Amino acid sequence: MSVSELQPDAPVRERGYRIGCIGAGMIMAECHLAAYREAGFNVVAIASRTVSRAESVAQRWSIARVHESPQALIDDSDVEIIDIAYPPDRQPALIRAALATPHVKAVLAQKPLALSLPEALALRDEARRAGKILSVNQNMRYDQSMRVLKQLLDRRALGEPVLAQIDMHAIPHWQTFLEGYDRLTLSNMSVHHLDVLRHLFGEPDEVTSVTRTDPRTTFAHQDGIVGTTLRFASGLLAFSLEDVWAGPRGGGFEDDQVIRWRVEGTEGVAKGTIGWPHGAPSTLSYASQRETDGKWVTPEWRTMWFPHAFIGVMEQLQYALASETGPALTVADNVRTMALVEAAYKSAAERRTVRMSEVPVPD
Fold first, then answer.
1. Which residues contact 357 (CB under 8 A, 6 or more apart)?
2. Which of 224, 271, 274, 347 could serve as 259's disulfide partner, Cβ 3.0–4.6 Å?
3. Partner residues linked to 57 by β-bridges
4. Under CATH, domain 140-310+338-354 is a member of which superfamily?
């Protein structure tokens, strides 16, 4: 297989469903709606906690209807898919309202799905009983470098994975609602990396996490800077570092924020960057004994994680409805990512390695 056969961006196979968006913050305004405009998705309504904010976002993206409340949007019979970008303590109630509304066909929720694993499991089961699709926005799976890496792994271009790492030194913008929670980086940043490691390599057997506070984050928290090791039955070790401090800033300090990743296998190596900190495309280079005679090859693309990955996230949900098949991002899979996050918190709190069997996920 050749480099030209790699697909950094998901194809758009379906765009025919009417979408109602709940939330008008940065993620919705700058990512969801920018992606949907580019893909030609049909956004028919928006609502948020603040009507004026929703009106401003609606004007920017030419959305016809602004509802005075999220519930009013859910009640809008013209809406078929509910797309939620809302604080996780308020999200479950909106999901339940959408699942109970006959004309709503599917829900796309944000991560974390809920603030606890038991509530996430309850939402999974309620969606099953309602016979509706509940999908979770694990958008890093649609980052272009991660999609290409997954394709390389699936075709065994790197052989058997031996070592993997995601090395982040970048400063997130923590939303103000996070100040009211007792969890920070693992739930809201590491969740991207831990989920994509599951996506790439399957279920780990063990997790070990260590944390410390972040000097820049002024509100109370435990998990500021986080380092996590995953051990898999195959022997694979995977490391995830979320350094949200990344050194001092301001006063002429030169910005060196970066997210790097690397996967080493028995027959090749792939490495790259995630472009999010600088609004640039992610990158990937690989060398394979099977495919490149050990020479480094660097596919290129112009699209980015933010916002273009959000096209694939919403497309997979529309395609699942149109084809009457399961979505690529299932809630059943997402609760296993939540279990991994839960195990990481347990490891950090108890200062020990935690086996995933200690955090069971019932079917």
1. none
2. 274
3. none
4. Dihydrodipicolinate Reductase; domain 2 (3.30.360.10)
- The answer to whether domain 9-138 has CATH 3.90.320.10 is no
Tokens of 270: 């792939």
- The pLDDT score that the predictor gives to residue 4 is 77
pLDDT in tens, 117-127: 999 999 999 99
Contact 242, 185 (CB under 8 A): yes
Integer Rg of the chain from CA = 20
Residue-by-residue DSSP string for 148-214: HHHHHHHTTTT-SEEEEEEEEE------GGGGGSS--HIIIIIHHHHHHHHHHH---SEEEEEEE--
Can you give the residue ranges of every domain in the chain?
A: 9-138, 140-310+338-354
Residues 6+ away with beta carbon under 8 Å from 89: 115, 177, 180, 181
**C-alpha span between 43 and 61 (Å, rounded):** 9
Cα separation of 70 and 123, whole Å? 18
Query: Do 9-138 and 140-310+338-354 agree at the fold level?
Result: no
Determine how many CB atoms are found less than 10 A away from the CB of residue 110.
Answer: 21
Average pLDDT over residues 163-172: 98
Burial grade of 99 (CB within 10 A; 0-12, 13-18, 19 or more): buried
Q: Give the chain's largest Cα–Cα span.
A: 60
Cα–Cα dist 71/209, whole Å:
39
What is the sign of the dihedral through the CA atoms of 208, 213, 215 and 216?
positive
DSSP 142: G
Residue 2 binned pLDDT confidence (cut-offs 50, 70, 90): confident
Q: What is the pLDDT of residues 324-340, one digit of tens each?
A: 999 999 999 999 999 99
**Position 58: which residue type?**
A
Extract the tokens encoding 312: 């694939």
- What pTM does this model have? 0.97
Mean predicted confidence (pLDDT) in 26-34: 97
| Nearest-angstrom CA–CA distance, 65 and 58 | 8
Cis ω before 307 (30° cut-off from 0): yes
